[in-house]
Amino acid sequence: MSLGLRTEGTNTKLLVMDLHIHSCLSPCADLTMVPSMICNANLDVFSVTDHNSAWNVAVFQRRCSSKLFIPGIEIHTAEDVHVLGYFPNVHDALKVSSIVEGLMDKFEYDPERFGYQVILDDEENFSGLVEYYLGFPTKVTLDRAVELIHSHGGIAVLAHVDRKFGAMYQLGLIPDVTNIVEVRNKETWLSLKKKGYVVLTSSDAHTPDEVGVRKSYLEVLRGEELSTEKVIRKVSAGHVRTLWEI
Ligand SMILES: [Zn+2]
Ligand SMILES: [Zn+2]
Questions:
Q1: Ligand nearest to the CA of 72
Q2: If you measure from the C-alpha of residue 222 to the centroid of ligand 2, how many angstroms do you get, rounded to a whole number?
Q3: Domains of the chain by range and CATH?
Q4: Which end of the chain has the least Cβ crowding within 10 Å, N or C?
């Protein structure tokens, strides 16, 4: 695997990562958010995190083999808070996705108005549509969402805490469910870093030109062999830097 590594010290280097990207499965994302448009982005590590579903993670893993791919999901909880889950493998992401699917109201919606939710096959062809709206809150509480992610070997991250559908914005505080947070603003980064949180910055890209516009960096050893599992454990252990720490 050839990664576009950034030189750091003699023994360490930084991998460029964007852990919050929506595919054409998310109703609010562009239909061009498919592997061939995203795989060549200037990133070493990336994750696809669609709203309340992980149906498209397998095709990204298959077709983006030049990058470290982290199967993900963005769960919209009953409290109207977005939580990201990152998993060591596609299988666990899909298991969580199907549990979340069972805990959603299946409202019919108008895709012309609110956006198509496209499932891709292995060849990146449009193979199906999700016909209920993925953009609504689920019946999964925040506690349950984090527990679900953890019990499937994943790590849970409170998404964009300082904007709409983020924990601080919706609840006025950071609930004590995980110590990993994604932020938008430098001020939030500063205050949460001081409190001991692991802080990430990611793009939340919904169009190809947004991929990688905000990113984080993963600290690794030179020559270190990496896997999806290892990357998420490193994130969890805080071996990350935001764009303000480079
Ligand atoms: Zn979100
Ligand atoms: Zn998002």
A1: 2
A2: 32
A3: 15-245 (3.20.20.140)
A4: N
Give ion ligand 2 contacts, CB < 5 A: 74, 204
Element (H, E) at 44: none
Provide the 3-class DSSP secondary structure of residue 99: helix
State how far the Cα of 125 lies from the Cα of 148, in Å rounded to an integer. 31
240 vs 17: CA distance, rounded Å: 10
Closest CA to 101 of 131, 124, 80: 131
Rounded CA-CA distance 210/201 in Å is 13
Distance 54 CA to ligand 1 centre (A): 14
CA distance 213 to 66: 20
**Cβ(12)–Cβ(6) below 8 Å:** no
Under a CB-based contact definition with an 8 Å cutoff, are residues 162 and 183 in contact?
yes
Give the tokens for residue 227.
């896997």
Q: How do residues 13-55 score in pLDDT, each as one tens digit?
A: 999 999 999 999 999 999 999 999 999 999 999 999 999 999 9
Could you tell me which residues come within 8 angstroms of residue 88 by beta carbon, excluding any fewer than 6 positions away? 153, 154, 227, 228, 229, 232
Name every residue whose Cβ is closer than 8 Å to that of residue 191 and which is 6 or more positions away in sequence.
none
The answer to whether 231 and 47 have CB atoms below 8 angstroms apart is no
* Distance from C-alpha of 246 to C-alpha of 244, rounded to nearest angstrom: 6
